[in-house]
Design brief:
Oligomer: single chain
Number of helices: 13
Number of strands: 16
Radius of gyration: 21 Å
Amino acid sequence: MKRALILVLDSLGIGASADAHLYGDEGANTLGHIAEQCAQGMADAKGVRQGPLKIPNLTRLGLAAAQADSSGTELAGLDQSVAIQAAYGYAIEQSKDKDTPSGHWEMAGVPVPFKWGTFPKTVPCFPDDLIATFIQQAGIPGILGNCHASGTEIIKQLGEEHIKTGKPICYTSADSVFQIAAHEEHFGLDRLLEISAIAKNLVDDLNITRVIARPFIGATAATFERTSNRKDLTTQPIEDTLLDYLVQSGGQVISVGKIADIFAGRGISQCVKGKNNMELFDAMLESYKNAEDNTLVFVNFVDFDSHFGHRRDVLGYAKALEEFDARLPELETLMAANKGQANDIALITADHGCDPTFPGSDHTREHVPVLFFGPHIKALNIGARSSFADMGQTLANHFGISALPHGKLINL
């Protein structure tokens, strides 16, 4: 029996890429800067964090060593004397953007060789004809926003007006995205998904890769809160990915979290949801327990990016990493229990960076960790991988399916 898991720590970059200056991201290092600030001691509303970042299991799986190789600097405050028990390294993105679909598609074997369309940093940022057609087709009284914005901040600013007027809040970021926020009760979740589908049809001609429906609840700016019913309407992958190849060969792909949205439903056998990182971890464990032969369990831990990276919350990011780290032995125990019956493998990686110490709220162009582990995986420094696609190629080899068109095999 052969199974695999991909655990995407959404936005956990480990050092700026050589081309980071082209994106305004020179010096970015999501993990490195989090560890640095934790080691220095950080004040927040609840006091001062005590002690350095505590991620002993991720360190044992090679994360600290991979970060040191990637950035040339060691993680501040970590005990790195523990023996590494995984194949570790880092990967360099070849896709032209630093967005979620490009990162995920590339790790699944499909780099994106062109830049997606984006909207200018002007107010308004959306073309007049796009918005006029959207208003007419969606049957709405107008829109609010029409600018680049942080999702949580624009809801605070415009949420009450949205409730009064029925106008959805439309905004974007540096990514190729058209985002629509609306109140889950006053506007309605089904209605939000309906107009988001209309918007996706309209932005396809502009080569915009995603429309994101962002429902929220609450009565006032002080109580508004986004819900877990987010929906990403994503352009289809430009080629068949590892997911397609595996399903076509008779295998299965279990999407945990937003993976199915990122791949526009392509190559997905089953979808499982969770409200936060810990629920997603639970769902991943349960999916793995019940997984049949030739099954890939693919999970995106979105809170790292959406709750902490984009919100520039260093302490929140650090705490989330420690909570994730503390649960890794649960997965390793399950994998060890199957050692005699299965040749299973797990991969921890990321899709881009989102350095919470950087100005603004956008992703950062960074290398990502590549940590392969499991009962049969030996400690090995796999070095710098020239593409995220090396991960997909290696998993294709693990499953014994056809080689993918892109990526080089990592000999584990």
